[in-house]
Automatic annotation (TrEMBL):
This is Sucrose-6-phosphate hydrolase. Pfam families: Glyco_hydro_32C, Glyco_hydro_32N. GO terms for biological process: carbohydrate metabolic process. Pathway: Glycan biosynthesis; sucrose metabolism.
Length: 491
């Protein structure tokens, strides 16, 4: 079915409850459905929004077009959790129901204030000639999850910025409020992050200026910027669309990258002593629009959209698409960003069915379903291939080719199931330290693999669409290895 513009922007009230129920059932019964990751109740999921801690709970929403696997009229779909692992659906919190967000309640963030959660987001408005105007909007959410939008926009775009001005991240620093936004300058169409400041949340917003983040140009548009403080450093996570690959290489259609600075200068809009060359946040195939924030205790967490813009996925045929990653905790060691599963991920383990292995092995135990955690250390001085999600006839698998001598890991999803975004390659190559043991910590959730490498020095996230019976785990040759396997419960 061809999705026309008219269909994508059809008002929600034109659909019946039955239409939605049918779509929810269809998504719910998919063999590729996720069981311990946030996934759309129906339709398309994209960016995580409003990730924060409020009223003793963690909150996150996702961008959602509920009526099909396409980018249409977007809302925020709200989830909450007490442990960052088990998430409960809380319904739609922001819908496109005013003149300012008439064509989508786009991405934004949240900040807890005076017993309420303040949501700041971009209202996407288009006129009848389809000319876009972005508005930065505010709304208060109370403890029950009831939302009241502010009547007027917080601010509009400055004249030097094009129509591409969105995704505010709200921060509080030294008694002031700040927002960083993804922006494109109008004259030279360059990607930037724009910093705004106010003494109050509801008004008084003014531009501080474009943030100095790198000596290089950050493509033609930056989406979803996030500033987060990690182990006494400032980390900027952002999506520089169209970034020159000579500045920093990437294979996905659009990259999600980060820069590390010693600190952030809010007065002069600069990432102090920036690492300059952005680094891929994730080395897999499908991470974009990640959102990060500092919890009240200072810890830094990140959650990502597992999906890419302008990309089709096999579940589109089932009228749903994409999911969010698990939440990861951020640290910096030796100038490098580490991402680790949060402590509470252990609560998913079915400990009574834990299987331990050690020795020179070709085969691992075979899990009962594609819902497990696998942690292993492959001893150094070995090369080979670890096959996951393997079929009985040996023809299909997700192949991890490792070379611990030269220090390389190649992730190959060519043979794991239905093809996805093959124009952008079917392998991803990750550099490892030479002559070191290789630690792999892998989470499988029916159509999602999250691979933490060497305690999270790199993470590779990918979707796959394989026969759910393909559960063999084996090496291509006997390999010195030890580790554990746990089936996981649903969230
Ligand atoms: C990124 C993005 C954001 C925008 C949102 C709309 O994926 O394009 O820039 O706010 O998605 O759904």
């Amino acid at each position: 079915m061809e999705w026309t513009r008219e269909m994508r922007y059809r008002p929600y009230q034109d659909y019946s409850a039955m239409d939605l129920l049918k779509l929810q059932r269809q998504a719910g019964s998919s063999p590729y459905q996720l069981h311990y990751h946030i996934h759309p109740a129906s339709g398309l999921l994209n960016d995580p929004n409003g990730f924060n801690f409020f009223n003793h709970e963690w909150h996150v929403s996702y961008q959602n077009f509920p009526f099909g696997a396409v980018h249409g009229l977007k809302s925020w779909m709200h989830m909450s959790s007490t442990d960052l692992v088990h998430w409960q659906p809380r319904g739609m919190v922001l819908t496109p129901d005013t003149q300012y967000d008439s064509h989508g309640a786009y991405s934004g963030s949240a900040l807890a204030k005076d017993g309420h959660l303040f949501l700041m987001y971009t209202g996407n408005h288009r006129d009848k000639d389809w000319t876009r105007t972005p508005y930065q909007l505010g709304a208060w959410m109370d403890k029950k999850g009831q939302v009241e939008k502010l009547k007027q926009p917080l601010f509009s775009k400055p004249t030097n910025i094009s129509e591409h001005f969105r995704d505010p991240q709200l921060l509080e620093h030294n008694g002031h409020y700040y927002a960083i936004l993804g922006a494109q300058t109008a004259d030279d169409e360059a990607g930037h992050i724009d910093l705004w400041e106010s003494d109050q949340l509801e008004d008084g917003w003014h531009e501080v200026g474009l943030v100095q983040i790198s000596q290089y140009q950050m493509g033609y548009m930056v989406e979803c910027p996030n500033l987060v403080f990690v182990d006494d450093h400032a980390v900027m996570i952002f999506c520089p669309q169209g970034l020159n690959k000579q500045v920093s290489d990437y294979q996905n259609i659009y990259p999600n990258m980060y820069l590390i600075g010693d600190n952030f200068d809010f007065d002069h809009a600069a990432l102090i002593n920036s690492s300059n060359t952005p680094v891929n946040l994730d080395y897999g195939f499908d991470v974009y629009a990640s959102q990060a924030f500092n919890a009240p205790d200072g810890r830094a967490y990140v959650i990502s959209w597992v999906g890419l813009p302008d990309t089709t996925y096999p579940t589109d045929d089932e009228n749903w698409a994409n999911c969010l990653s698990q939440v990861k905790e951020l640290h910096i060691r030796d100038g490098q960003l580490y991402q680790q599963p949060v402590e509470a991920m252990r609560t998913l383990r079915i400990e009574s069915k834990r299987y331990e292995f050690a020795g020179t092995l070709p085969m691992m135990p075979e899990p009962l379903s594609q819902q497990y955690e696998l942690a292993m250390t492959i001893e150094k001085k070995q090369t080979g291939t670890l096959h996951l999600l393997g079929s009985q006839d040996g023809k299909h698998s997700l192949a991890l080719h490792f070379d611990t001598k030269q220090g390389q890991l190649v992730i190959d999803r060519d043979q794991v199931g239905q093809p996805v975004a093959t124009d952008h390659g079917t392998t991803r190559t990750i550099q490892l330290p030479e002559q070191q043991n290789l630690k792999l910590h892998i989470y499988i959730d029916h159509s999602l693999a999250e691979i933490f490498i060497n305690d999270g020095a790199q993470v590779a996230t990918l979707r796959y669409f394989a026969d759910q019976n393909n559960n063999r785990i084996y090496f291509n040759q006997p390999t010195k290895v030890q580790g554990s396997l746990w089936p996981l419960s649903n969230m």
